[in-house]
Design goal:
Layout: E1 2-9, H1 15-32, E2 36-42, E3 49-56
Antiparallel strand pairs: 1-3, 2-3
């Protein structure tokens, strides 16, 4: 098994829209295909940062 950490930089003021899209569309789709999503995070000090971690078998 291995892990993937993905980091995205969102356009100014668009991070909340991106998080909503990820949580409502992308993550459920990934899970439906058997992907394990270990975490979905936003940066505390960086307003444009979004991170998620996936596990592959």
């Amino acid at each position: 098994m291995f892990f993937e950490l993905r980091e995205y930089r969102c356009p100014n003021g668009q991070r909340n829209n991106w998080v909503k899209f990820m949580e409502e569309e992308i993550i459920p789709f990934q899970v439906s295909k058997g992907m394990v999503i270990l975490g979905s995070f936003t940066g505390q000090e960086e307003d444009d940062l979004y991170i998620w971690i996936r596990r592959f078998e």
